[in-house]
């Protein structure tokens, strides 16, 4: 086999941290961002939220909710999307995409929770939602589902670290077997929880009918958020794959490389259909709610930009790309979709939020808020690299070949 | 835990949440004013308000809030559009309505069925029988979803407090009410612009004022039904002719920043549909996806069986052909030649067997 040199940690040499100490621009940038992030973290937790953010009484949720939470959760949808495709729908050729997708989903959710701690006034009281459950709150449902799903993702993901550590701690083999036997239950549990909280993120804003612009406010917001999360899930698998091929190509085995392109085309096709459907339901909703007159306004134009260039366009590009088997085009469409999802979440949570207020009272994130968001993304990437360097995510562990 | 037990726990969790949602929905759906029989409210008559800020000063004093930079005697601040915050639980704003100044006091409206309470995931907000909406900061997580939910932009947050930041809003002076005292702002008002009483009585008072002075007021008691009804209700002055005003009260209320588009149902109800769908999804998704899994498994099994059947058929055909040929050869060339044929055929099959199987 034309195995390029994959470094597989062994019983005696568990760690493979060499990659982090290489003098490369990527590592340097990472170090700088992490250092700046840590400093802002200290300021945030000693001086208060007001010291680093532009949040106000009219805009209590800003960048940290709009990007870290809404986009973070949505872009981590690749986990449920891929596992359902592979295990439930029986698309066996997606198999090599499952572990990277589950890994990024787990990291995504874990860091969503970490990022959330920055935004909460009393981060240590987060578990209070379980002691004093406010069952009428959408946020309660989001919290419950995210907490449960994070656990499910942790269990799904745990196979990789167990294979990594099994040489040293053989008892993990039994756990690994148990988890693998539960794969299908975990997958179905995962998709149920994902449906619930992905849609609930949209439902969060149902309670603010006067604040979200009518073109974005709809009783069907939960549906919009859920449908777009599917497109986001498919697109993120392609989008992340693009970077993984750049950065950690040498950790991919032959199976992964052989299946990679086919996965891109399959996911592109799926994403194309989903984006078309998403476009249609949003468009229909606009008509049904008699929002047509709003289109001839600044916000109307902005809404059309989102609809045409960030939903319809990637849908068409995906269709063309998957039909012509054009890898570059599919990747472009994936980036376009991801950007569109981020734009949509920004619109709902910030740009079209408080649209009726005078511009002086409107919100724009502070540089420090953006820094923390970049810091969180960098932490995700660094954790991903650590995992890829140590655990069988992009390759099959030789001890566990054909074990699934 | 086996799978059945696990699923039954999952199911009962769904049912419990469904029941509690249904109960809450019922509480919100069937009640009509008054939410609590005999609860208190305040009638704010903006035609009487002169913008003296005495209420602001009193609020600041009785609640021990930090002193503002500009003193309460400085009436010019009313001209800037202010909102309530963690430091100011009530503010008086000056609005210019059709050329005439109108002052309106802003504070928590103490909704009958408050959106903040529906939104809070740690149950910090509670509508009290006395009419106030109470906030318990000891279990507040600081998520500020109440501030997103409040249609009146009332709650403020202590963004500058690093270790115990809380949501702050008018308490209706509930502690003072318990002592039998009036809320600070009402006691301080020199113009009788704030009338304290049972909410049901205040609605009648408002109507009688409208009746006694035709054309003075907008024919709309703001808060009677808005957002499901509020304990604090507001009367606004009519500006133009009586007919124009009664035709569209929003015309006169919007310049006062009173939103008439909130509807007459509690705001929290907007989320109950989505919450009600949760148990449906919990119950049905496993069946849906379990079914999809079963279908794909069955499809694979059928596919596999078909492949095997084809392979078997091909094998039978081949052995029939080889046997027939070998028998023919045995007849013409003798059994030794037939064995050679069989051997050659079997060798040839071994070579092509692999691609046939896979």
TrEMBL record, chain A:
InterPro entries from the UniProt entry: FDH_cytochrome_b556_subunit, NrfD-like, sulf_resp_HmcC
Annotated localization: Cell membrane
Gene Ontology cellular component list: plasma membrane
Keyword match Hydrolase: no
Any single GO BP term: anaerobic respiration
Protein origin, superkingdom: Bacteria
Membrane protein topology class: Multi-pass membrane protein
Keywords: Cell membrane, Membrane, Transmembrane, Transmembrane helix
TM spans (from-to): 28-49, 61-89, 101-118, 138-157, 178-208, 220-243, 263-281, 301-319, 331-355, 367-387
Major subcellular site: membrane
Record family assignment: Belongs to the NrfD family.
PANTHER family, sorted: FORMATE DEHYDROGENASE, NITRATE-INDUCIBLE, CYTOCHROME B556 FDN SUBUNIT (PTHR30074), NI_FE-HYDROGENASE 2 B-TYPE CYTOCHROME SUBUNIT-RELATED (PTHR30074:SF4)
NCBIfam families reported in the protein's UniProt record: sulf_resp_HmcC (NF045714)
Name this polypeptide is given: High-molecular-weight cytochrome c subunit C
UniProt source species: Candidatus Desulfovibrio kirbyi
UniProtKB/TrEMBL annotation, chain B:
One annotated Gene Ontology cellular component of this protein: cell envelope
Keywords: 4Fe-4S, Iron, Iron-sulfur, Membrane, Metal-binding, Repeat, Transmembrane, Transmembrane helix
Subcellular localization, as worded in the UniProt entry: Cell envelope
Signal peptide positions on this chain: none
PROSITE patterns: 4FE4S_FER_1 (PS00198), 4FE4S_FER_2 (PS51379)
Residues of the 4Fe-4S ferredoxin-type domain: 40-70, 131-160
Keyword Transcription appears in the UniProt entry: no
Transmembrane regions: 272-295
UniProt protein name: High-molecular-weight cytochrome c subunit B
Gene label: hmcB
